[in-house]
Design a protein that fits this description.
The chain has helices spanning about 5-20, 20-30, 45-50, 70-80, 90-95, 135-145, 170-180, 190-205, 210-215, 215-225, 235-240; strands at about 60-65, 80-85, 105, 120-125, 145-160, 185-190, 240-250. The chain is α/β, with parallel strands linked by helices.
């Protein structure tokens, strides 16, 4: 488990997120809602998911890399769905299981966790699919889990874990979709994300003293460092970064 990408860091991160009141306030301020975000998803992005949720009875939704479950529980509160999630962080899953109803959370890794075929109406992956050892194989696995007409919704960032490619059709994920003959659409939200990261940087600096009062200087430095990419112009940011939302249908 220790060899997994950023595993130790995420265990520490969710331990911090679960006990820091300042971090919760920061998330509300930076992202519009506290989902214990470590990255690029604000409430505007998450609310876009509702536009693609299949209109069916007895809805079942899986969150891949669900963290501490706050995002998928938010979706459940709006849809009354049965929710599922897995994450390789034991600290995150421990928190996710608290106050959960009609929910199944488990510790596990992509490529190891398995579900029955045609279980889900929707599968969501917000900034988690990069952790798959083989993205193409994992996409194929997800499409086995989806019911006919099911939706795979992906938040995908380039310039962080994944290297920047030419455009939304040249990403590793787009290539995996085409290889699997999977229909998809894509939204380019790079400019929106640049503005969100500016807000994230301002919010982190706003809470600097509060983080220090909790002994969280390390996490404050991380949050500010994550936004160094927006210290320059939008055009400069777009040269090395991009953000897309992919929506694929079975």
């Amino acid at each position: 488990m220790e060899e997994l990408l950023f595993h130790k860091e995420y265990e520490e991160f969710y331990n911090m997120a679960n006990r820091s009141s300042v971090f919760r306030q920061y998330c509300e301020d930076a992202f519009g809602r506290d989902f214990s975000q470590d990255g690029f998803s604000d409430i505007r992005q998450i609310n876009r998911i509702f536009d693609y949720i299949p209109q069916v009875d007895n809805l079942h939704i899986l969150d891949v890399g669900c963290g501490n479950g706050k995002m998928i529980k938010y979706i459940q509160s709006k849809t009354n769905a049965h929710i599922y999630g897995f994450d390789y962080s034991a600290n995150a899953i421990h928190e996710a299981k608290i106050d959960s109803e009609r929910a199944d959370f488990q510790v596990g890794c992509m490529g190891e966790v398995e579900y029955s075929a045609e279980t889900f109406d929707m599968v969501i992956s917000m900034d988690s699919i990069y952790f798959a050892e083989d993205m193409g194989l994992f996409v194929a696995q997800i499409f086995r889990w989806l019911k006919p007409g099911g939706i795979f919704f992906v938040g995908y960032q380039e310039g962080d874990v994944m290297e920047k490619t030419e455009n939304c059709e040249t990403t590793f994920l787009a290539q995996a979709f085409r290889k699997g003959k999977i229909r998809y659409q894509v939204l380019d939200i790079t400019e929106e994300t640049y503005a969100m990261l500016k807000r994230k940087r301002e919010s982190a600096m706003k809470y600097k003293r509060a983080f220090e009062s909790e002994g969280m200087e390390k996490w404050y430095a991380m949050l500010v460092g994550q936004t160094d990419c927006v210290k320059g112009s939008l055009e400069g940011y777009k040269q090395g970064n991009a953000r897309y939302l992919y929506i694929a249908k079975k």
